[in-house]
Amino acid sequence: MNRYMLLLITRRCGAGALTLLIVSAVVFFITSLLPGDAAQMVLGQSATPETVAALRQQLGLDQPLLMRYLHWLTGMLHGDFGTSFASHLPVSQLVAHRLPATFELAGLTTLVSVPLALLIGLTAAMKRGSRFDRGLMMATLAVVAVPEFLVATVAVIIFAVRLHWVPAMSPGTPPADLLSYLRNYALPVLTLCCVLVAQMARMTRSALINQMDSPYLEMTLLKGVSPLRAILRHALPNAVGPIANAISLSLSYLFGGVIIIESIFSYPGVASQLVDAVSNRDLPVVQLCVMLFAVCYLLLLLLADILTIAFNPKGRG
Predict the structure, then answer these.
(1) Distance between CA 299 and CA 252 in Å, rounded?
(2) The whole model's pTM is what?
(3) For residues 168 and 140, is the Cβ–Cβ distance under 8 A?
(4) Model confidence over 29-57: pLDDT tens digits?
């Protein structure tokens, strides 16, 4: 790694840290503006004003907003994520219990969607302009335009209610055998893959076509190299940067779409916990869940930037 690449990566890391700081401020102030009183939600409507005021003081809700933010940010930097208003348990303990399930769902979706998208994008690029290419691009455009909740609802009606092939809810608990495991995760993974595969396939096709129109690849074909060999050995390595960037950007969608999917399929992950915490005005849980999604999103973008820089001919030179 030369000095130019190291400087660019350092700048990306610095920009990511600054972005995370801005996100933390936005998350804290927006969650503080949620309607309803957190202390009143914990105690119930029958609580007296004196009891509510005492709990607000205990939770620190009576302090100025800026002071609460600085106290929360300092605690986050030291690993103290606060205590849940609803369960009075450490927020880190509550979220850590749900985090593996969300990562498992995201990992399974990645394992299915990325190879399938690369295969579709590569095939469409090799057959560009054909009926297969036009039909495939129209199909992917139609899939991208359909909202996730509609895809999930239709999938439940067809495969769970009508055909009884898979369960309508995904419990997220370890099944007894592989078939039960696949059946439990089929609908959530299928729904998430629909949009991801469509987006990544279109971006992969565009990146490969851009390389296929380059003079060096035309010269390779004139020398008698087969189109498949030319694409795999020459076009694909030079398109790794844009493709990796497209995959990272598409996978970052997981941390938004998974909120809808976990809610629909009653999946016990962090996203469904976030929805419950918003309903209960459990602000520490909401803040930590949103910050986790933001960190994962920024890490994927940073990985995409690093791969783009690493495969940039200027950076290698």
Answers:
(1) 9
(2) 0.81
(3) no
(4) 888 877 767 777 777 777 778 887 887 78
